[in-house]
Every structure is written in structure tokens, then in C-alpha cells.
Amino acid sequence: MRKLLFTMLLACLQLCAWSQTPGMTKYTIQWKDYRPAVVTTTDGKKVTVGQANILLKRSTLVYRSVLRNHIMEAQMDNIKCVDFGDRHYERIDTTLAWRVDTVGKNALYCVTKIDQHAFRQNLINNRQMTNVELNTEYVETATLDPADSDIEYPVVNIYYYYLNGKFVLCHERELYRHVPKAMRERYKVALSMPDFSWSSPKSLLNVLRSITR
Fold first, then answer.
1. 76-88 pLDDT tens trace
2. How many Cβ atoms from other residues are within 10 Å of residue 208's Cβ?
């Protein structure tokens, strides 16, 4: 019942403009309009979807069914990658990450999703809600209602490298284990730059260049 209600509320969203506040959005999908996408499945088949989008709650694929007149969430286990025009997404575990840029055979990817922990904390701070209330249908469904125009969703970017055939989280300790020994000194130098930041695509691409053969 909860899943059905969630689907119906998504279908009723009035998709207008993004919030102007950096790192925040008033909507739970990537684009205000549903658009064509080419889905490549894990068995290599390509399927064209007429109206698709990215659900920011989990960074998953959703599509509009014209026949059934509602929005459905795709089975992520069956998806290898998705292309929306020139924006390419790869599945990493259960989420879709978009390709920021490539360096040789390697690449930087980004998972953009709603920071649900920060969102719940904002609800507590702004509405004095209790933890008991946060476990009810309100958080799961009612907060998706566009009638709540004062609600904004904090968005977080999580970066990954596609490095030597594997996806690796952009984290100093995790990444170090995957850097070839011959390039670890260059890796350390890149991290030591004064303007380096793990949240900056420019910084992360510089690091990727330093560890790409």
C-alpha cells in the first residue's frame, strides 16, 4: 500500500523549476521534464524508454508509463547503464552514477541524491517533529507532495573513480589501496595541493590524471 501511494504521489508532482539555492532542490527527480533514455541491461540488450528520469531519493531510474498513467521505479538489478542524450549513467551497486569526465580509460563518476539524514534533521529543526513522527508515512510519502512548497531537499554528491576496470569510492584511504605503487608518490602530491577538495570535480580529475597510466 505504501509503495502504491508513493507511486501515485510521484505521478502527481508538478514539475516546475529547480530551487535556486545551491545544493538544494524542491523536487525529487533530476530533470523537470521526463525525457527519452536508452537503457542497457545486464545481458547486453538495449531498450529505449520514451519518458524517463532519475529519482534523487536513491539515484535510481524511474519511467512514466503512458498506458498505466503512473510512474514506476525500475528494477536496478537488471540495469547496466543508462544514457540520456549525452549524459551517461553507470550502475554502481543499486544506484546510478553519471559520468563527469574521462581520463584515458579511467573516469570520474558522481551519484547525486537527496541527503535523507540531513533532510530528516531539517524536518526536526524546522517543524519540531519527533523521531516517532519521522518513522510514519509522513517522511515516506507526504513530503513528496508539491503542495508543501516550503520544503527543500538537501542534495549530496558522492564521487567514484572508474579506475583500471573497477569502481572505487573517492576516499583517501579506500583509493590508496587501488593506486599502483609506482604512482603513489604522484597521488600524494596531488592531494597536497592547496586548493584540493574531495568535493571538487576539478580536484578529483587532477588526481585521476596523476594516477592514470
1. 999 999 999 999 9
2. 23
